Amino acid sequence: MKREEDERTNQQLNEYVSLDNLQSFFLMAGAGSGKTRSLVSMLEHLKREWRKNLKDTGRKIAVITFTKAASEEIQARISYDSTFHISTIHSFSWEMIRHFQKDIKEYLIQYCEEKLRELSTKKETDKQKREIEKYTKKLMKSKEATKFNYSPDTNITQWGYLSHSEVIKIMTDLLKNNSSFAKILIQKYPVLLIDECQDTNKNLLTYLIEIEANHDNFCLGLIGDMMQRVYTGGLEDLQKRVAHWGNSPKKEMNWRCQKRIVDFINELRKETDELQQYQNKEKNAGILRTYIIKEKDNDQERKDLENKIREHFSKEIDENAAITTLILEHKMAARRNGFSNIYLALDNSDTKDAVKDGTGKEMKCVKELVIPFIQAMKAPGEFELLRIFRKEKVFETMISIQKIGELKQKIDNIRPKINEQTTLREAVNYIKELNVTELPDAFLFPDEENSKTMNWQEAMNETLDEFKSYFDYKDEQSPYFTQQGSKGLEYDYVMVIMNDNESRGRMFSYGKLSGTTPPTATDLRNMNEGKDNSIERTKRLLYVAASRAKESLGLVIYSSNVDRTKEYFMKNGLVKDCEIITERDL
Question: I want to staple 71 with a disulfide (CB 3.0 to 4.6 A). Which of 10, 65, 155, 158 is the partner?
Answer without folding.
Answer: 65
